[in-house]
Design a protein that fits this description.
Strand content: 5-15%
Shape: globular
Strand order of the largest sheet: 1-2-3-4-5-7-9-10
Largest sheet: 8 strands, parallel, barrel
Distance between the termini: 10 Å
CATH topology: TIM Barrel
Order of helices and strands: EHHHHEHHEHHEHHEEHHHEEHHEHEEEH
Structural class: alpha/beta
Number of helices: 17
Oligomer: single chain
Length: 473
């Protein structure tokens, strides 16, 4: 049974939806350097390639146009209000507020845009859920500091936070400091704006950058509570339980270690200190981080809730032959689980895994949880009547909502649930439009062509009933 006041929502990110990459005084964002096509994944790993090969005249960059939410925000939010959303998760594009990242004062046009977005949400009785940094480090900060490899990034980030918290202190209650912070270990440029070469110790670099982000997140949490004690600040994980492939103790130990790799980030943000297992990992790998006494003091400012994205569970094996059978299309390396099916992009579909993940997170932290991303990427086809019959998406979402309900019955405290993305947006991993997640179809193809017309899918009407009945049946 879902609690009264449960926040049924939907989610997008600025870089995948807004467009208007050079409008209103906006500067270049890290996401603006990620092209469509074969070079995209390499660019997501290492910013050196992204910076070196950026050429907006010869390559198509999907974030430059997105779905033009920058100009369509009002009609889009009204569509979401018609859907019945209680919460709308979106991100602030950092370089729209501070185009280079080191300015002494914010870009007024950028702030006015978010003024309108937030006011439009509130006018339509939708709670804004704002992500401060959603994989969009300003290119100016990448060039000046090397992004999160430098401690100076903490000050630049907190400057952005101060501007946002003061301006929206009476309008935005729920904030997420960083999107999927653990992604920095898998996609260093996307997660931390990192450029590197063979001279760098990459593991050292990633964990040092992660430390600076953890300090920045804790300092932002303290700042928000000082500006308005009623603000709720959350951390965020790219979550999904890692299973052992078998009951071989080696597989079980490997799964424990892989789970700790993601839990490290939320452990610090919820508990306020580095756990022993990560300290030992750093020692074993000869990694010495720049951690000051002041850092340790700041880290004690812990979050109010834990938010997560959930798309799939993962599987590991100590058997080299078994490990050759990997799933495709996922950032996280995973052995294929023979007991569950996969999406068109190779993401394994595991609703029961969501229940397991929620229970493990709540057992670990006893903090409210908020699912801020969950959805199915699929190819949607318009029929002769311009309708999209996406029963496969309804099936996916209904099974995951059932799993959420069961987790609540298990005793998990769950604040809300945001479908990713409530409207079709550019895929972050591939840059495609054909990999659609939305309940609302956007007429645009992989090359950026289309009318941008919005069309409600069958899943739109289904989710509307789910919200009206607060998840009952």
């Amino acid at each position: 049974m879902f609690p009264k006041g449960f926040l049924w929502g939907g989610a997008i990110s600025g870089s995948q939806a807004e467009g208007g990459f050079d409008s209103g005084g906006k500067g270049l964002s890290m996401a603006d350097l990620l092209p469509y096509g074969d070079r995209r994944f390499k660019s997501m790993l290492n910013g050196t390639d992204a910076l070196k090969n950026y050429n907006s005249e010869n390559f198509y960059y999907p974030s430059h146009t997105g779905i033009n939410f920058y100009e369509h925000y009002e009609t889009d939010i009204k569509l979401l209000a018609n859907l019945g959303l209680k919460a709308f998760r979106f991100s602030i594009t950092w370089s729209r507020i501070y185009p280079i990242g080191t300015e002494s004062s914010p870009n007024k046009d950028g702030l006015k845009f978010y003024d309108r977005v937030i006011d439009c949400c509130l006018e339509n009785n939708i709670e804004p859920l704002v992500t401060i940094d959603h994989f969009d480090t300003p290119v100016g900060l990448v060039k000046k500091y090397g992004a999160w490899r430098d401690r100076k990034m903490i000050g630049a980030y907190l400057n952005l936070c101060q501007t946002l918290f003061e301006r929206y202190k009476n309008k935005v209650k729920y904030w997420i400091t960083f999107n999927e912070m653990n992604m920095i270990l898998n996609l260093p440029f996307v997660g931390g704006g990192l450029c590197y070469d063979k001279k760098d110790n990459l593991t050292q670099l990633k964990y040092q950058a992660a430390h600076y982000q953890l300090v920045a997140s804790a300092a932002a949490t303290k700042m928000a509570h000082q500006v308005n004690p009623k603000m709720q600040i959350g951390c965020m994980l790219a979550a999904g339980e890692v299973y052992p492939y078998s009951c071989n103790p080696k597989d079980i130990l490997m799964a424990l270690q892989k789970n700790r790799e993601q839990y490290f980030f939320s452990d610090v943000q919820v508990r306020g200190y580095y756990p022993n297992y990560i300290k030992q990992y750093l020692v074993r790998n000869n990694i010495s981080l720049n951690i000051t006494l002041e850092d340790k003091k700041i880290l004690k400012n812990t979050v109010d809730f834990v938010s997560l994205s959930y798309y799939s569970t993962h599987c590991v094996s100590s058997d080299k032959e078994v490990s050759k059978n990997k799933t495709k299309g996922n950032v996280f390396s995973s052995v294929e689980n023979p007991y569950i099916k996969s999406s068109e992009w190779g993401w394994q579909i595991d609703p029961i895994g969501l229940r397991i993940t929620l229970n493990n997170l709540y057992d670990r932290y006893q903090k409210p949880l908020f699912i801020v991303e969950n959805g199915l990427g699929a190819i949607d086809v318009l029929d002769e009547n311009e309708r999209i019959h996406d029963d496969y998406r309804i099936d996916y979402l209904s099974k995951h909502i059932d799993a959420m309900s069961e987790a609540i019955d298990d005793g998990v405290e769950l604040m809300g649930y945001c479908i990713w993305g409530c409207i079709d947006i550019v895929s972050a991993s591939t840059g495609e439009m054909k990999k659609r997640y939305g309940l609302i179809y956007v007429d645009k193809d992989d090359e950026g062509n289309g009318s941008l017309n919005r069309i409600k899918k069958d899943s739109f009407y289904w989710y509307k009933k789910v919200i009206q009945k607060n998840g009952i049946n």
